[in-house]
Design goal:
The chain is of the alpha/beta class. The N and C termini lie far apart (57 Å).
Length: 266
């Protein structure tokens, strides 16, 4: 099969990636076009040791890192309606930005990210973590923790604070969670499902979402209880026992893609 046929299904997604990476559609498309022109001139540059999708992103990023094609003036072609996520990208340093976008936007695994940017899996994970730290500095917010196990709550609180966020409180029951929200509106909620008094963290979150709109991360030993299709949708779901890096990454992703990102909770 020709290179053109192999990469054609992936080009729309590469254009999306290029826009996020460069900041504008015009600039992103300029890099994509330049990459395609380079492949026409030298098809041997296409990495045959990778599957076509990974190879496409690898050669694109090599071009992006080595050639100044961005001819768009600063601010030109940038829509006033650009999302906070797009604006947040501008502050990320290049290599962590690449790794973060490959992982969170394009959905590559850590091993695939490593193969694309030609680093070890450990280094790729480190770059994504570095991006998470940079994101946290941009979107530091107030975090409510709903967790009835004191040791786990302390671990989560430590992770949240290491990322530069402020913990508004730790709730052990649904009633405590509602009271804490009434006292201080959070910018993010991390919630367990099964709480100390038999109440439900899911019910607590549902009640919270009737009064405020806030991103939620569920950390639970019972993930099947969230697979119902009911609100809130489990966009961010971590299963116990969890890895600290998974929690930190979820926090950064939830805030990065939240439309209120970058605004401290009132």
């Amino acid at each position: 099969m020709s290179i053109a046929k192999e990469i054609a299904p992936h080009l729309p997604y590469l254009r999306r990636f290029a826009r996020a990476l460069t900041g504008t559609q015009n600039s992103g498309d300029a890099y994509v076009v330049a990459m395609l022109e380079a492949l026409v001139l030298d098809p041997s540059a296409f990495p045959r040791d990778l599957n076509p999708r990974l190879a496409l992103y690898r050669i694109f990023l090599k071009l992006w890192s080595s050639v100044a094609i961005n001819t768009v003036e600063p601010g030109a072609g940038v829509s006033l309606s650009r999302s906070p996520a797009e604006r947040n990208l501008e502050a990320l340093t290049p290599l962590p930005r690449q790794a973060f976008l490959l992982r969170t936007v394009e959905g590559f695994t850590i091993d695939e990210v490593a193969a694309i940017i030609e680093v070890s899996a450990a280094d790729a994970a480190g770059l994504i973590q570095a991006a998470g730290q940079e994101i946290a500095e941009q979107v530091a917010t107030d975090v409510l923790i709903i967790e009835d196990e004191p040791i786990i709550a302390l671990d989560i609180e430590t992770m949240v604070e290491e990322l530069g966020h402020t913990v508004t409180g730790v709730a052990r029951t649904q009633r405590e969670a509602i009271a804490l929200v009434a006292r201080k509106r959070p910018g993010l909620v991390l919630a367990d499902i099964q709480l100390a008094d038999g109440s439900s963290g899911l019910d607590a979150v549902n009640e919270i979402l009737t009064s405020i709109d806030v991103p939620v991360i569920f950390i639970t030993a019972y993930p099947e209880r969230l697979l119902t299709g009911d609100r809130p949708e489990p966009a961010f779901l971590i299963t116990k026992p969890f890895q600290p890096e998974a929690v930190k990454a979820a926090i950064s992703q939830a805030l990065f893609f939240d439309r209120r990102a970058g605004r401290k909770a009132a």
